[in-house]
Amino acid sequence: MTTTDAGEPTLTIDELAARAGVTVRTVRFYGTKGLLPPPVIGARRVGHYGREHLARLALIEELQHRGMTLAAIERYLAQLPPDLSEHELALHRAVVASWAPETVESVTRGELDRRAGRPLTDEEVDRLTAMDVVVRDGDLYRVETGLLRLGVELLDVPFSPETVLAARTALLEHSRAAARDLSRLLRDAVAESGARDVRSLSAHMHPLVVQALLTTFQRSLREEIREWIDGSGEIDGGGEEDRAAPG
Question: From the centroid of its chain, how far is CA 12?
Fold first, then answer.
C-alpha cells in the first residue's frame, strides 16, 4: 500500500481485489463495464485505487446479494453522482441492505476471512465476538452478513469493544423508538388514503424511509460533532449530507 501526496492510502489492483474479496479479473471487468472509475496512474504506469473504489465494490457486492443482475447494477450505479465519497457510497449500501431481512449465516474461518475482505487475526475475531458481530458455534462462526463489513471497519477505529457495543445499544434503542413512531404515522396515512395493497406500499416506502433516517442522522451527527469540537469549522468532506439522498 502506498499513499498520495495528500497522505491518502492507495491500493494496487492486487491489494484492492484482496481487500474486496474478489479477483483481479473481476476488478478489471467492472472497470471495463464502467462500474468502477479508472485508477490513478502513478510511477511505472501502476494504477492506484482509493477507499472510494473499495466502497463501490462493497456496494456492488450488496446489490448482487439482493439478486440484481449486472445490467440492473449498471443502471443503478449510472443514476448515482460520479464523485460520491467513501461515506456516501457506504450510505447507499446501507439503504440497499435494508431492502432485505437480516441474514445470519454459519461460515468457516476461511469463509469469514473472505467475507471480511481480508485475513483476520485471532485477536480481531475476538474483538468482533466482543462487539456481538460474530458468534462462535463450535468450528463455525455465525455472522450477520450485513453487519460484518461494518464490524471489520470498526476494527480500525481506536475504540474499545465495550464502547462500540454501548454505541450499538444506544442506536438500537433510539432507532426502534423512531421506527415505532414512523410506523404509526404510516399506518394512519395508509388508513386515510384507503390504499388496499398495503404490502406493496410498505415495500415501496421501506427504502425511502431508511434513506431519510440515515440522511437525517448523518446531518444530526455532523451538527453534534461541530458542537463537540467547539465550532472549529467544517468537518472534512463538508456538504456530504446535502448529496447523500438521490434526487
Answer: 22
- According to DSSP, the residues that pair with 11 across neighbouring strands are 49
Spatial distance between the Cα atoms of 63 and 148, rounded to a whole number of angstroms: 16
Cα–Cα distance for residue pair 132/119, rounded to 1 Å? 19
Tell which residue, 65, 39, 33, 36, has the closest CA to residue 149. 65
Closest CA to 96 of 79, 83, 120: 79
Q: For position 4, what pLDDT does the model report?
A: 46
Q: What is the pLDDT of residue 208?
A: 64
Q: Tell me the Cα Rg of the chain.
A: 20
Other Cβ atoms less than 10 A from the Cβ of 243: the count is 14
Please give the backbone phi and psi of residue 9, each rounded to the nearest 5 degrees, phi first: -70, 140
The string over 111-134, giving b where at least 16 C-beta atoms fall within 10 Å of a residue's C-beta and e elsewhere, is: ebbebbbeebeeebbebbeebebb
Distance CA 183, CA 196 (A): 17
What does the block give as the cell for 207?
427504502
Which SS3 state, helix, strand or coil, does residue 155 take? coil
| Closest to 19 in 3D by CA, of 67, 74, 58, 47 | 58
CA 239 to chain centre: 19
pLDDT in tens, 201-214: 565 566 666 666 66
48 beta partners: 40
Architecture of domain 2-97: Orthogonal Bundle (1.10)
Strand partners, 105: 143
